[in-house]
Amino acid sequence: MAQDFHGLTFVEYDEDGDETVYKILSRVEPTNSEKTYLIFCEDTDDETAEVFIEAAEVLPADDGGEALYEIESEEEWEMLEEVINTIMSLDDSAN
Description:
There is one protein chain. The protein is an alpha+beta fold. The chain has one helix spanning 74-94; strands at residues 2-4, 9-13, 19-28, 36-42, 53-60, 66-69.
């Protein structure tokens, strides 16, 4: 269901051309759905910074790559929250 992408990142550019680097936590491909999701957070070296975990649906892009889209369904969010909680509990147990 979930794949580990530990250490992989992607970059998002805002309208001013400023970049934000995100760390990929997991790629989720539920067995009961054809959808794919990415769970990620901003990649920072600041250990005191608050971490916001985000998720997006992955869809094919016009250029042949992939694009991220906002998740709109409450059911999708509930499923992804379970995955995020699992990731967080595994991270806590590793420390």
